[in-house]
Amino acid sequence: MKLHRIKPALTAIAALSLTMNLSAQRHGPAAAAEQAKLLIPHPELEAALFASEPMLLNPANMDIDAEGRVWVTEGVNYRLFKPWGKIQPKGDRIRILEDTDGDGKADLAKTFYQGNDVNAALGIAVLGTKVIISCSPKVLLFTDENGD
What we know:
DUF7133 domain-containing protein, alpha+beta, DUF7133, three-stranded antiparallel beta sheet
């Protein structure tokens, strides 16, 4: 009878340790490069890694502006991003990634905005100088006055 109680507990512990081990392996530049190899694009397209950690953390959504820059919302503070234990005390960020040398990989990253009012923002739309962010239950409007 006691074995029946122990077996589910051992199974849960084994599953938890496996999950923790796998989640630790899913982060970082090397893991991102390996995961990118698993993408299967249409035969006429190519999938390549554009950016990874530490340039951005836990991306949630993205948009591409008229200049070809990639705007990304991060969700590091969402559920405390437990796999890495990373917390941004100043709040999550809206990042702008740019390929300045034309090699197909981001080599410049800037923080457009950081604050606790955009924690776990799940939507972004860049329309000229306006940046619309959806972060439940709010929709926020930012203006990029200096073109950064």
